[in-house]
User: What shape does this take?
Amino acid sequence: MDKEVEPFCRALPKVELHAHLNGSISVATMERLIARKPHLNIKHSMTAIHKGQRRTLDECFQVFKVIHQLVDSEEDLLMAAKAVIREFSEDGVRYLELRSTPRVETNTGLTKRKYVETVIEAIRQCKQEDVDIDVRFLVAVDRRNGPEVAMETVKLAEDYMLSSEGIVVGMDLSGDPMVGHGKDLLPALQKARNCGLKLALHMSEVPCQKEESELLLTLPPDRIGHGTFLHPEVGGSWSLVHKVREGNIPLELCLTSNIMGKTVESYEKHHFPYWYKLGHPCVLCTDDKGVFSTSLSQEYQLAASTFGLDQEALWILSQQAISCSFAPEAIKQQLEKRWAEHPLQLTYSQDSGAKRK
Ligand SMILES: CC(C)=CCNc1ncnc2c1ncn2[C@@H]1O[C@H](COP(=O)(O)O)[C@@H](O)[C@H]1O
Ligand SMILES: [Zn+2]
Assistant: This one.
């Protein structure tokens, strides 16, 4: 691999649009959380999947249950969220959309409202502390919890969209794709859309979701998470591809997550090139940087080495992610300006200028 790719990807200003809060907790933060709750007897091996290891989707979802035991109070959540935001910033992420599922924890008195407020507070505190990153919050619906909870979550998200000064911008649909059906959640998602919340939905993460994806595309979503099995070569359909292309709906693509969760056989077989070659908007994301021991820089490096992307292509990929974000127009313009004035942009344009000569 080009030895300059690693520092380039780290220095590259980046946009992260698909990051689950509790899946993004680093080893260092996990250590602090484990130390706070020694009685749980939780080992590191239970909260992360390391390089070279692969687990079934089911096994991966067990990991979240363990992490949720470690993050079950307002204090834990505030500490974890702030650490995650700082780490993304240290990795060169300048705009982040963090998603998380509001939870009730009776032991500690955590309510769903408190949960959302704590994540918002973490975002505000990072801003006050001048952490170099703009953070927005997508309130997540866990598909496992059914239509009533989904509707309740939409109402919660709507409330905070109106009162969080632009921090809450949308909703995510996630959770074990083998559980529940999107058709039951459609009314809640429709309501979310109608009240102005943006929708980032996990779709076709597993092969058996063709019908569900057709249905969810009628909303339509503003972005798609994974979309691994949308295209006909992997059992999807032309109709799905056509609708996604027609709607120009960006895809959030998480290479390592798909390999480690065994929904994609190898990096080479990832669906990134399928969509990238079509010129469709693709955004590289981490999904769960803590659980999958990765970083956004590493995901850019992997895309570069696996699919032969040069520095110019990586730059364009990161810049195009700005327009796929749910940031208000004014913020998008500020980010565009920041990218245009970035020192790396100068070297890269000199390089590509030299290449052109
Ligand atoms: C298991 C695996 C391969 C994970 C990657 N793919 C995923 N697919 C669907 N939902 C997810 C995934 N990763 C994280 N989540 C959701 O994010 C939650 C953890 O973050 P949080 O508590 O919402 O802050 C999980 O409980 C789950 O609802
Ligand atoms: Zn995800």
